[in-house]
Amino acid sequence: MSAKHADTIVMPTRKSPVPALTFAALILVLAILPAFFYPIFVMKLLCFVLFAAAFNLLLGYTGLLSFGHAAFFGGAAYVTAHALKVWQVTPEFAILAGVAAAIVLGLIIGAVAIRRQGIYFAMITLAMAQMFYFFCLQAPFTNGEDGIQGFSRGHLFGIIDLNETMNLYYFIAAVTVLSLVLIWRIVNSPFGQILRAIRENEPRTISLGYSVQRFKLAAFVMSAGLTGLAGALKALLFQFATLADVAWQMSGEVILMTLIGGIGTLAGPVVGAGILIGMQNFLATSGLPVTMVLGGTFMVCVLLFRRGVVGEILNLLERRRG
Amino acid sequence: MTNNPAAAPADAGAPRAVLSARGLTKRFGPFTAVNNVDLDVCHGRIHALIGPNGAGKSTVFNLLTKFLKPTEGRIVLDGTDITAMDPASVARMGMVRSFQISATFGDMTLLDNVRVALQRPNNMSRQFWRSLISLDRLNRQAMELLDRVGLADMAQLRANNLSYGRKRALEIATTLALEPRVLLLDEPLAGMGQEDVEHMAKLIKTVSRDCALVMVEHNLKVVGDIGDDITVLQRGEILARGDYATVSADPRVREAYMGSEDDSH
Question: ABC transporter domain location, by residue (chain B) (predicted)?
Fold first, then answer.
């Protein structure tokens, strides 16, 4: 064996400056964005950016298409709203309660769904999310059609008043950026490599001795927890938790965002959420039929940019380089 | 093969089986795909499983590796009954398989492909909080494995960009990373050009010195060249077994292969 030969070629993984620069740019953009846009709009956008990024952790990096993520998003929103309104805890505890609820839900739905693959996996997640929807419709604490509303956002750590818009803005921006860093870390970690291997070839990963079910469940729960964080932030932002957050349309919307932006890319969900929320906002006042325009956009994306906006750009760059 | 364990250690001429199957049977509804197959695979030897199409070779293979559950029969690996185990567990016990369609992680580099295999034995598969740089300490080992199959200078390429023959070589490197005691190769030479076939046959022979090796293969020339023990299957049952000379002289085997023998050369 020519170990010497091997030695000359081993190159350590270089620490790329790109991620650090990207996150620095993101922070900069978030700092100046409120000067140009209505902060509430930017905050709503951030909630969906986080939602789509958490969803992409599962779809893009593990290859699992969940059609039930609304359950985690809306479930966490309900619990956070309930904690603020009824338990009257500080917002950070309300958010933690929401995330915990999403993790528990993720464990239950995930444990059942990962036994099947492909379309069956998607159908099980959808079915269980619908069961949760009807639970929310009937359960007394959600107030049915009315939802939970009319509560104060409270003071973060008992000190910072989140009813001040800019305080809330910096809080949501910080949580979103930290979560995106966390997702980036998970994806680029030893654990993330195994998820990628599962996505690329599941039987092969099993034959290498990995219990892929456990890895899938872990990824599912991580995705559910981060989705819950997004839902909790949204409830805090709008002081409102409603059936729309747990409805299947919400699961569909996050799939759209991720696909339009580009699955399996870190920036994809950010761009996709931006496009979708931006269009919804613009179309709401334009008098155009919103769902038809969104549906048309989706079809164009699927037909023309199969990798999504970011995916196509990255592909173009890669081809130019070599 | 002797069935008396007390006699085995004294008898150096007959190595003990690492992997044994007894009465292996698999039915799919009314159809019996594999019927009452006995098999012994020994350390340092290549055991070839041959037979015409539909003979049940791949089913036997999937039964041995636990990707299918046998309807009847017992499988023993190193004295442990593995009949009821799942495929990941038997892989952790050192029984590793390859796939008929080459199984690489296409979107990952060759180095990453091999590192994925090394991560588990090195307890580096669950850390979601650590940087990828932490995996660099596997590089040396990974590069040695790639070097062994002649792919060291392509370590940074994506597996998708490899030719078919090289993908199979990468698969072997990935498999060897687990230091398997039993290696099962499902048609390792299928679809390869002549040059790759020779290279791969040599590689398989070398690898077999350190493990027990089972392969399903259609290329009878290679089976004759490197196979030590040969089992011929037909319609799910064992038709003949022995070394290549014995098996190829068997009139029933010749009959079973009539017509298809020409294609295999």
Answer: 19-260
Residue A73 token pair: 């998003």
**Chain B residues with CB-CB distance to A322 below 8 A:** none
Q: Write the pLDDT tens digit of every residue in A89-122.
A: 899 999 999 999 999 999 999 999 999 988 999 9
In chain B, what are the domain boundaries? 17-104+181-257, 105-161
Higher pLDDT, A191 or A306: A191
Class of CATH domain B17-104+181-257: alpha beta
**pLDDT above 50 (res B251):** yes
Q: What's the pLDDT at B10?
A: 40
The three state secondary structure string of A53-71 is: HHHHHHHHHHCCCCCCHHH
Q: How many CB atoms lie within 10 A of CB A89?
A: 15
Measure B174 CA to nearest chain A CA, in Å: 9
With beta carbons under 8 A apart, name residues in chain A contacting B103.
201, 203-204, 207
CB < 8 Å & 24+ apart, contacts of B126-129? B126/A190, B126/A191, B127/A189, B127/A190, B127/A191, B128/A185, B128/A186, B128/A189, B128/A190, B128/A191, B128/A192, B128/A218, B128/A222, B129/A185, B129/A186, B129/A189
pLDDT at B101 > cutoff 90: no
Quick one: CA torsion of B249, B252, B258, B260, rounded to 10 degrees? -90
